[in-house]
Design brief:
Two copies of one chain form a homodimer. Chain A is α+β, with helices and mostly antiparallel strands and about 230 residues long. Chain A has five helices and twelve strands. The first copy, chain A, has helices at about 40, 130-135, 155-165, 170-180, 225-230; strands spanning about 5-10, 30-35, 50-55, 70, 80, 95-105, 110, 120-125, 150-155, 200, 205-210, 215-225. Chain A has a six-stranded antiparallel barrel with strand order 1-2-7-6-3-8. A four-stranded mixed β-sheet of chain A has the order 9-12-11-10. In chain A, strands 4-5 form a two-stranded antiparallel sheet. The longest helix of chain A is centred in the last third of the chain and has 10 residues, at about 155-165. Chain A is globular. The N and C termini of chain A lie far apart (about 45 Å). The model of chain A has no long low-confidence stretch (mean pLDDT about 95).
Chain lengths: ~230, ~230
């Protein structure tokens, strides 16, 4: 398996990266195809499709042991067979995402509605063909029994000021989509950690928030430069 | 990449294997998960889903050279970028098929509506999640411009007798689905080869047919045993 290229994504770290692509439709990424794959020719015709499959490597998967059952975050402590999930922790670390194809410019695809992290190696790109791939009638499996764990999202006065300053029209909506789906790991969801201050990078921003009961409160938002200045040893 | 198991399929050879899974809904395959993946646990919960993604290796892909553009059979001689197609001839030989999950028995999945060949190594199995995977609104790309190359399918008197003898209720419908989608390669579609007698194995049957104008005529159908007896050197 040889990478076609590497992803540039609005998601910079595991924490804050959605577990499914459709929950953050405003998310965006680009994929620059390496020259050895002759992107001018190999991408020709793809621009006519509205959606594409991105097959990628879960490259940040450090866990080398195979676990036949895993604990999906939305099952709140219950386990299920790994092949009944889209978990990254699988025998072959292959990820599969249907993304919206926004445009192709030269050797680079621009996509939205994604769930992959900066630096992800891409293994394949295929057109989405509704006749073969779209099964709106498909049953939901155990997912229909999963409890609703979505959070209400609020912004502090400071966070609202920060948003105004950045003048990035999608930023608030994107943060809301991410936090509504509760990015916390099961440990940080324990009641004893309620109110713990957490943060993640999104595009060029560091988003700081805390969760209390079923509400996520965005405390503040900094640019990466502000964050670096603040956290670097003097 | 390590195989999870190998496919047993009604399609025994490249010729006669459909190029997309949805065109032969009656086709069927099974996948026995190797013991090292602890199928009892790793498959648990998957039985609740109606559809699954099978990610597999195009293992019969002998062409080791990379071609950025390919000639899809249904474009009748026109070329297009490999990433705008589902062709097996791609940088990483990864196939992606949404199949209907009929049932799971112990370590074995039974699926239908497939396009893979006997012996295919399976790399991953994932549940189909309509919220993320189903995009009925997706645009068709160049496929909407492809000419209609479907064939009318007829059965000779001999073929009808053979079908009656085998008493396999899906066989006629499945042969019709395969031939309607014209399994011939571009060379055999040349007018000079009109009427050439061709054959492929389907399950335990050898199907012999010829195409004239836009009609495929099934000449006869033999069991594999009859075929072997007929063709073996004495």
């Amino acid at each position: 398996m040889r990478p076609l290229g590497y992803i540039k994504s609005c998601f910079k770290e595991k924490f804050g990266t959605p577990r499914q692509p459709h929950v953050v439709p405003l998310s965006s990424a680009s994929i620059k195809i390496l020259g050895e794959w002759n992107p001018k020719d190999s991408l020709s015709g793809l621009e006519e499709f509205s959606h594409v499959w991105i097959i990628f490597e879960f490259h940040q998967n450090e866990n080398k042991n195979f676990n036949a059952k895993i604990y999906p975050p939305r099952l709140n402590g219950q386990s299920i067979g790994v092949f009944a999930t889209r978990s990254p922790h699988r025998p072959n670390p292959i990820g599969l995402t249907c993304a919206k194809l926004e445009r192709i410019e030269g050797d680079t695809l621009y996509v939205s509605g994604v769930d992959f992290i900066e630096g992800t190696p891409v293994l394949d790109i295929k057109p989405y063909i509704a006749a073969a791939d779209s099964k709106p009638e498909a049953s939901e499996g155990w997912i229909k029994r999963a409890p609703d764990l979505t959070l209400k999202v609020e912004f502090s006065e400071q966070a609202r000021e920060d948003l105004q300053k950045f003048d990035d029209k999608n930023l608030q909506a994107m943060i809301t989509q991410i936090l509504a789906n509760d990015p916390r790991n099961p440990m940080d969801r324990e009641p004893s950690r309620s109110g713990k201050v957490l943060g993640f990078f999104l595009d060029n921003y560091n988003v700081v928030f805390k969760v209390h009961h079923r509400t996520a409160l965005v405390i503040n938002i900094q640019t990466r430069e502000e964050y670096d200045r603040y956290t670097q040893p003097s």
